[in-house]
Specification:
Order of helices and strands: HHHHHHHHHHHHHHHHHHHHEHEHHEEEE
Number of strands: 6
Helix content: 55-70%
Largest sheet: 4 strands, mixed
């Protein structure tokens, strides 16, 4: 049997439905395997803060209406968080796989060739894959955005508009993407659907007002948005220069190829490709450019974090899927043999899967900060008595200390009254959150009522805002 016939028989066996179910099953097994074997997680302190709010939301209902992890994320993830942090991470994994599946459906609706490749590209894009093992909101945002796009591509304008309305309830950037979708409704002359794009925000604003919040509790305050800080500023090209690490070089090649091809088709046949341009290209560019300008100007709160880019991976995926098909088709044109095209497709397919494992470490190990926090937790649990109370500022310490919201061990969120500590109490000082509350380590060390008894350094030393990260226990004498 020749190569051509062999590859043809393989293609015949793997029908789209068989390949679809096989891919989804294999991806799920791989991701759960990583989850089970990983000691660490991604998202660091933000993940644990979101976990705390979701884990105790049922016993503290006010957590469902918070602007830290956002209402929709907390509501959907809370049932998973009840079963523990691994289950909480599983929520993002399942949402991530669903995002890949919806990306496949969108590519299919837009008549992109080999749309099933979108599932692999989405799930194995480095910045997307690593954040599947976190508690950050970018994955749910990506799912919601591509789901809205899917229904709009299918001309289900009302349903699409309602889904769009929930984007700001997951991330503030949802207000930015709302503008793009509103422009799409104007372009399509579906003006009445614009009203539905505000339905989610209006609904939760009213609910917040009923329970005592401000009517505008969901919207970022203008002074905060316009407040410029040099600590959150950097190069306007930050996300461009780091994009190979976000998306992976193979994906970038396929993405640029697909983007150029898509734009070319749009310029030649605007009517046929307007949906792809307005619902795929524009949301991607608006979000990417928005974060670049925010980080450069210091306005808007962008910290230049890699995780932000996970939110627009499904849009990149659609364009990269087109580019990957063109890449493989080029080999058919050159060699005029079908098996060469299929072989090129397989090589490209394998490179996409390989990249996240090449640039990231799986299973995920504890990061340096978490390593120090765990060591401090292990030590303090062997030191404290029933009458001892532990005070701390670091928002992740509760996780390693295994304490809940109602646990007698204290989590201080503002400057504590150190005079209220009694003999036998402990205060965990760290060079980030404690310092931010105005507490200086020199003040504590020079206070005769306190004694520095233990210092915990991270496994790999690092700095936060030019200060070395350290954890120090100081008990009241």
């Amino acid at each position: 049997m020749g190569f051509t016939n062999l590859f043809k028989s393989i293609e015949d066996f793997f029908t789209e439905k068989r390949l679809l179910y096989s891919l989804l099953g294999v991806i799920l097994i791989i991701l759960i395997g990583i989850l089970i074997t990983s000691e660490g997680f991604s998202g660091e302190t933000e993940s644990l803060t979101h976990y705390k709010l979701s884990r105790w939301a049922f016993s503290n209902p006010e957590f469902f209406l918070n602007n830290i992890s956002k209402p929709i994320f907390t509501i959907l993830s809370a049932p998973f968080a009840l079963l523990g942090f691994k289950s909480f991470q599983l929520f993002n994994i399942l949402i991530g796989i669903a995002t890949g599946y919806i990306s496949f459906l969108v590519a299919k609706e837009l008549k992109v060739k080999s749309p099933i490749l979108a599932i692999v590209i989405c799930c194995f894009t480095p910045v997307f894959m690593i954040n599947l093992f976190s508690g950050v909101t970018e994955i749910l945002f990506a799912f919601t955005a591509i789901l809205a796009t899917y229904y709009l591509v299918k001309d289900k304008f009302t349903l699409g508009a309602i889904i769009v309305s929930f984007l700001p309830l997951i991330k503030d950037e949802g207000f930015l993407l709302m503008l793009i979708y509103i422009y799409y409704f104007v372009h399509k002359k579906h003006y009445k659907e614009i009203v539905y794009t505000f339905s989610g925000t209006v609904l939760f604003s009213i609910i917040g007002l009923i329970v005592g919040k401000s009517l505008f509790w969901l919207t970022p305050s203008i002074p905060e948005l316009l407040n410029t800080t040099t600590e959150s500023q950097g190069s306007i090209f930050q996300f461009i220069t780091r994009s190979p690490g976000f998306f992976g070089i193979p994906n970038e090649i396929f993405f640029v190829t697909g983007l150029v091809a898509g734009l070319s088709l749009y310029l030649r046949q605007k009517r046929e490709y307007s949906k792809e341009f307005l619902l795929i290209v524009l949301p991607f560019l608006a979000y990417f450019v928005g974060h670049s300008l925010s980080y450069w100007s210091g306005i808007g709160g962008s910290q230049g974090s890699a995780k932000y880019m996970a939110a627009i991976v499904p849009f990149m995926t659609i364009m990269a899927t087109r580019g990957l098909y063109i890449f493989a088709k080029m080999f058919l044109i050159i060699f005029k043999m079908e098996w060469v095209r299929v072989a090129a497709l397989i090589v490209a397919f394998a490179s996409v899967i390989h990249i996240p494992f090449a640039i990231q470490n799986y299973p995920i190990a504890l990061d340096s900060e978490s390593f120090a926090l765990r060591a401090a937790s292990d030590w303090i649990q062997n030191q404290t008595t029933k009458t001892s109370e532990v005070y701390y500022n670091h928002p992740s310490f509760f996780f390693f200390l295994n304490s809940g919201i109602n646990d007698p061990k204290k989590h201080i969120t503002s400057t504590p009254n150190l005079d209220s500590l009694k003999i036998g109490d402990y205060f965990l000082y760290d060079e980030n959150y404690s310092k931010a509350t105005g507490i200086k380590i020199e003040t504590l060390i020079n206070n005769p009522e306190f004694e520095l008894i233990k210092t915990f350094d991270p496994e790999t030393p690092f700095s936060i805002k030019e200060a070395p990260f350290k954890l120090l226990f100081l008990p009241d004498q």
